[in-house]
Amino acid sequence: MEKTDYLEESQSKKEKIILIIYSFYTLAMSLVTYVIGWASWILPFILIGMAVAWWISIKKYRTYRFRAFCISAIALFNFVIYGMHSQSLPPILSTMGALVILLGIFNIPQIVHLAVAASLFLMIYHGFVIRTIHASAIEDVVRVILQIVSVFTIECVTYYLVKTHIDVNETLVSTIETLTIAEQSKDDFMANVSHEIRTPINTVCGMSEMLLREDLSESAREYTFDIQTAGRNLLSVVSDILDFSELESGKMDLIEEPYNITSTVNDVMNMAVALKNNKNVELIVDCDALIPRNLSGDEQKLRRVIMNLVSNAIKFTREGCILIRFSARKEEYGINLTVSVKDTGIGIQKENLEKLFTTFNQVDTKKNREEGGIGLGLAISQAIVKKMGGFITVKSTYGKGTEVQFVIPQKVLEDEPIVTIRNPEKIHAIGYINMEKYDYSAIREGYAKSIERMAGQLRVSFRLCRNLPELKRRIEKTNYTHVFISWEEYCEDKPYFDALAEKTKVVLILDRENDSNVNRKLFKIYKPFYVLSAVSVLNGESVVQSIDSNIYANHRFIAPKASVLVVDDNIMNLRVVEGLLRPYRIKVFTATSGREALQKLDTMEYDFVFMDHMMPEMDGVETLYHIRQKQGNYFKNIPVIALTANAISGAREMFLSEGFADFVAKPIELSVLERVLRRYIPEDKIIKVEEYETAKKEKTKLYSEEKKEHDLSMQGINVQQGIIYCGGLIEDYIDVVSAYYKTGLHKIQEIEDSYQKKDWKNYTILVHAVKSTSLGIGAEELSEMAKALEAAGQSSDEAYITEHHEAMMQEYRKIMDVLKDNIITEKTEDTSGDTGAAKMEDTSEGYASEERGTEKQIGKDRLTELFTQLAEQLDTFESTAVEGLLKELFQYEYQGQALRTVLSSVEEKAEAFDFLGAEEELMKLQEKMR
């Protein structure tokens, strides 16, 4: 609670206590005045005073100090009226003392002074005006003096206590303020630490993610995966420290949002495989097939808890197995999700079980000194589970193993289970796993129970055999649709299973290191084997399991017509976001500052914006404020999503309160990114991968039908290498070849003209373009010849150019002739008009509603700035950035000329990937426009 809120609440309570007691006194005085029959105006006067006091308090009129003086003055005045009509002073002195103590609760010394003044007035009035103080006997004099002294003593003591209380309060307030400043400093420090550490981690994890999508060697893929795993482990340590800070301050908050439990399970399994590495430990996963797929809760913290338990189990288990169990029980509010992690590790002694969740270190540091970790995992896990409304339990036998289980309530959004068999009645599966090969009974029991439960929940026919002869005997008698075996069983009789794979689906469950020695016709599932991978095979789907950041990677949609502006002052972060968005085919535009973002928003419409928080000059919050201040519904409604490494508790609420549409923390989790993309990309721009694949098959059907007559291999061109350069997609390769052919027709003439004029500067630029574009389509020999001529041009070796020019041109013309007669070029030429139209429509996305002739005027300074940026991007071959800058320039005209027309030659060369040629054209334009 804020300090001001606490003070206001405390003051309000004081007022109520004083007014309630004062009201009882007032009612008592009213009763006395009525019974004795005092003047008629006294009773209404006293009651009106009480009503005014309540009204001032209820309305919170002005300040607390003002209200306190008003209430005290009214109470004292009413009491003075009452005292003036009393027939004797002593009876009212006790009441006076009580009233002084009551008003002292206000903690205002001046009010005690008012009470003293009222007391003196009544004493003078009774002693010298109406003379009710009688001194007929010494006893009466002493009694009156004692009563007066008692009243003044009470007033003095009250004054002293009030002053002391004020001094103590001031000291406490000062201490609280100091602690608040210290707490704020700590929060600021943690926020800065979070930002500064998460930013490079974002680069490490993001860049390794993009590398893993490339065509790497197996060893390079493993090294890259290890780098990414190390980055994520570092992120886990940072997150533990931040969570611990939140726990201490009581600021840990839950973020409830929809999530897919399938992704959570897959990510946990992926991380578990990475952590296990080469340990001789069997990882068994028993996942309930009937768990509802779409739930609502804090998925990020749920994943943290599971990973904490799994990583602990892996750390302290040297051999045996780790059994991870996911299950659910339906309740009125949704489900109780149960996750259990059981291991055959070192276990925990009974005396250490009690402090397992209360100390922030490993319970047996001597024995576990070689294990990593900072000892926060279990304590944080317990706090998160309690925050979610669940509970966590631990069972352990020292030297034999530990089982940690937690249960949390989760809301169910859809009852559809995580997996479904399409035609279970058509599946007849058989499996052979020799359980006796495992030394640990826990492994045998774990596999047996998980397989039995899996078959029962999926409602498929499945029989498990104990040995190879039994398997062969049953296969001879019955036709099975699927045969499941593991690596050791496969090695018992490889020829038999290889032959069996010719007529039925043989599914091999194996570790990654055994992958290279397997017949390609066998279906492969990498361990851990569980219900998600099993159902994929049974449904006839491909199980994408490779060493990467998401073993079961599955981008289920693309959005090639969507556009996003990413704003970040860190160039590496921009590249990471571009790479993560690339599989979704989204057009990505970037800005390195808030000011640049505002300029780009003025020239183009985006579907949404990713905005970094901490940027120099103008941070993300200030940039958002300026966006919303612009005129038009577009600027009022465009979703701006905070993209920040500041992941401390309360950050999300802060960003949402500032007007951001959503919040994404760095490093970016792919599941979170996909959720945000689905939420903010317009539905009509989202294309399901299934639909895209169907369209792609239709597009390439024509080529496959005529493949016998026109093979894709072409003389002088390494087609397969060219397809690899184009991301492995044949349709992209076809587009590149078509553009190469169309631009090559006049490129030959340009080279010849430069050669005849001995314009070696332009000649060098032109052959450089031939070198790069030829290599891009797989014309490797032509590329090498052009490379040599480029080097000669740069060193002014005219003799070499003269000797080898004609040979290169002959090879260039031969390549053009090959392309002209090939089925690829024929098909692209047949649809060249449509393709060109499609390209034009694509490159002008966001401006289709603008008519020609409505371009805005651009100033010379802004044009020079954009030309400079375009030259830089051309120089570094950044095709996406070049496309975005051209789009921006196409919206303007300069000195009466539409830049769309002026820059057509630059666009043409850039589309043909002739970036140096495009840069040369741009330089010519800059010279003309000076």
From TrEMBL:
Catalytic activity, reaction form = ATP + protein L-histidine = ADP + protein N-phospho-L-histidine
The UniProt keyword set, sorted, is: ATP-binding, Cell membrane, Kinase, Membrane, Nucleotide-binding, Phosphoprotein, Transferase, Transmembrane, Transmembrane helix, Two-component regulatory system
Q: How does it sit in the membrane?
A: Multi-pass membrane protein
Record EC number: 2.7.13.3
* GO MF terms, alphabetically ordered: ATP binding; phosphorelay sensor kinase activity
Location(s) in or outside the cell: Cell membrane
Give the Response regulatory domain ranges. Answer: 563-681
Q: How is this protein annotated for GO cellular component?
A: plasma membrane
Give start-end positions of Basic and acidic residues composition bias: 849-859
All copies of domain Histidine kinase, residue ranges: 192-412
Gene3D superfamilies attached to this UniProt entry: 1.10.287.130, 3.40.50.2300, Histidine kinase-like ATPase, C-terminal domain, HPT domain
Recorded hits in CDD domains, A to Z, give:
HATPase_EvgS-ArcB-TorS-like, HisKA, REC_hyHK_CKI1_RcsC-like
Q: Which residues carry this modification: 4-aspartylphosphate?
A: 612
Q: What class of enzyme is it?
A: transferase
**Where does the sequence pass through the membrane?**
17-35, 41-57, 64-84, 96-129
Annotated stretches, region: Disordered: 829-859
Q: Which InterPro entries match?
A: CheY-like_superfamily, HATPase_C_sf, HATPase_dom, His_kinase_dom, HisK_dim/P_dom, HisK_dim/P_sf, HPT_dom_sf, Sig_transdc_His_kin-like_C
Report the PANTHER family cross-referenced here.
HYBRID SIGNAL TRANSDUCTION HISTIDINE KINASE J
Job of this protein:
May play the central regulatory role in sporulation. It may be an element of the effector pathway responsible for the activation of sporulation genes in response to nutritional stress. Spo0A may act in concert with spo0H (a sigma factor) to control the expression of some genes that are critical to the sporulation process.
The family note in this entry says:
In the N-terminal section; belongs to the phytochrome family.
Q: Quote the protein name from its UniProt record.
A: Circadian input-output histidine kinase CikA
